[in-house]
Specification:
One of its GO terms (cellular component) is cytosol. Belongs to the MurB family. Pathway: Cell wall biogenesis; peptidoglycan biosynthesis. InterPro entries: FAD-bd_PCMH (IPR016166), FAD-bd_PCMH-like_sf (IPR036318), FAD-bd_PCMH_sub1 (IPR016167), FAD-bd_PCMH_sub2 (IPR016169), MurB (IPR003170), MurB_C (IPR011601), MurB_C_sf (IPR036635), Oxid_FAD_bind_N (IPR006094). One of its GO terms (biological process) is cell division. The protein is an alpha+beta fold and 327 residues long. The chain folds into three domains: 87 residues, Uridine Diphospho-n-acetylenolpyruvylglucosamine Reductase, domain 2 (2-Layer Sandwich); 113 residues, 2-Layer Sandwich (Uridine Diphospho-n-acetylenolpyruvylglucosamine Reductase, domain 3); 84 residues, UDP-N-acetylenolpyruvoylglucosamine reductase, C-terminal domain (Uridine Diphospho-n-acetylenolpyruvylglucosamine Reductase, domain 1). The strands form five sheets. The protein has a five-stranded antiparallel β-sheet with strand order 6-7-11-9-10. A hairpin with a 2-residue loop joins β13 and β14. The longest helix has 19 residues. It is globular and about 55 Å long. The model has no long low-confidence stretch (mean pLDDT 95). The structure holds flavin-adenine dinucleotide (FAD). The site of flavin-adenine dinucleotide (FAD) has 32 residues, from β3, α4 and β11.
Length: 327
């Protein structure tokens, strides 16, 4: 529960022109894991002006806050977030394709954007067709599949700093590397992304997307809520150990269950919510898997998924349960 001073500031904030607001919003409705207590205030801006007003106001009121996209890579705590959660999603998702260039607001849902880029006869981003998040989240994480990342096709990122000022980053200054970018932990919100693709045959591009989706459907669990791959692949050790799913499977950890969080039979790098999993269930399972894999192989897995602490700060999920016996 927020303090009464914070509560007053939140009420004043919600009266400004900042977009859709909702008090005590259950975060489980904004995470693909279906886990998470209430955010004191959830705000969904619908324009750049509203976003800038919101950021300046957050600074003015000194309110703890965090920015999210579709919550497909986030574990919220069961107690929720004391402060403001700003969601850039469906309300902030217009885009334009012109020639080989795509200009998009960060809240656009990636599969929708990629499908329409393909229909326009532009190629290069097919690998991202099945990634269920927003463009902002994808760029921040340099997400991708089939060992590719979105960063390769980024031309420019338009981000806003904590003072409400727009800053432009070209691809080099984003410093994209495997699931990393300089935009992470920089206190920035991504507002707009400019992408550039090559031209190709729309029929072939769409066929490739269908193939990718078919293969993902076979590989990944779909029955229970999950946040995709939990542990990061380590390019340095890939040849020796293989991907995290293979390592975890070799350690015999498929179907390991803590509370309602379980490593599914279908893919060992996922954790599914069987119904009422808590954030503590997921973190305990992460900890147990890391410890067991380390004991059996000497390999230390790190998380791709980020845990959101009650104060709104984020850390890779393994850092929230980092009391392993590493001897
Ligand atoms: C079934 C499934 C399959 C998946 N497969 C893949 C895959 O193949 N490859 C892959 O890379 N990922 C995959 N993921 C993970 C996830 O979809 C990606 O990381 C995605 O890009 C996250 O986007 P999001 O909008 O959901 O971000 P969120 O989960 O909401 O946030 C992720 C991070 O981005 C930040 N963020 C979000 N939007 C903004 C913004 N506009 N400005 C600043 N910061 C922002 C958040 O603060 C957070 O740190 C999968 C997830 C699921 C559920």
């Amino acid at each position: 529960m927020a303090t009464s001073t914070m509560r007053d500031s939140l009420k004043q904030l919600a009266r400004r022109s900042i977009g859709e607001t909702s008090f005590d919003a259950p975060l489980r409705n904004h995470s693909w894991w279906g886990i998470g207590g209430p955010a004191d205030l959830l705000v969904q801006p619908t324009s750049l002006e509203q976003l800038c007003t919101l950021i300046k106001s957050l600074h003015e009121f000194q309110l703890p806050h965090l920015f999210i996209g579709d919550g497909s890579n986030l574990l919220f705590d069961d107690v929720g977030v004391r402060g403001v959660v700003v969601k850039l999603g469906r309300n902030f998702s217009s885009y334009e394709i012109s020639g080989r260039k795509i200009t998009a607001q960060s809240g656009v849902f990636v599969p929708r954007l990629i499908r329409n880029i393909g229909r326009a006869g532009l190629t290069g981003l097919e690998h991202a067709i099945g990634i269920p998040g927003t463009l902002g989240g994808l760029v921040l994480m340099n997400g991708g599949s089939l060992r590719q990342g979105i960063g390769t096709h980024v031309q420019q990122v338009h981000a806003i700093n904590s003072m409400g000022e727009m800053i432009r980053f070209d691809r080099d200054s984003c410093q994209f590397s495997y699931r990393k970018s300089a935009l992470q932990n920089a206190g920035l919100v991504i507002a707009r992304v400019d992408l550039q693709c090559s031209t190709g045959d729309p029929v072939r591009i769409q066929q490739r997307m269908r193939d990718i989706l078919r293969s993902r459907r076979k590989k990944f669990p779909r029955r229970h809520p999950n946040c995709g791959s939990v542990f990061l692949s380590d390019p340095k050790n890939y040849d020796q150990f293989g991907p995290p799913g293979a390592i975890i499977e070799r350690c015999g950890l498929k179907t390991l269950r803590i509370g309602d969080a379980m490593i599914p039979q279908q893919h060992a790098n996922f954790i599914v919510n069987l119904g009422r999993a808590s954030s503590a269930d997921v973190l305990s399972l992460v900890r147990t898997v890391r410890q067991d894999v380390f004991d059996k192989t000497g390999f230390l897995l790190n998380c791709e998924v980020r845990y959101v602490q009650p104060d709104g700060q984020q850390v890779p999920a393994h850092e929230a349960c980092d009391d392993l016996q590493l001897t």
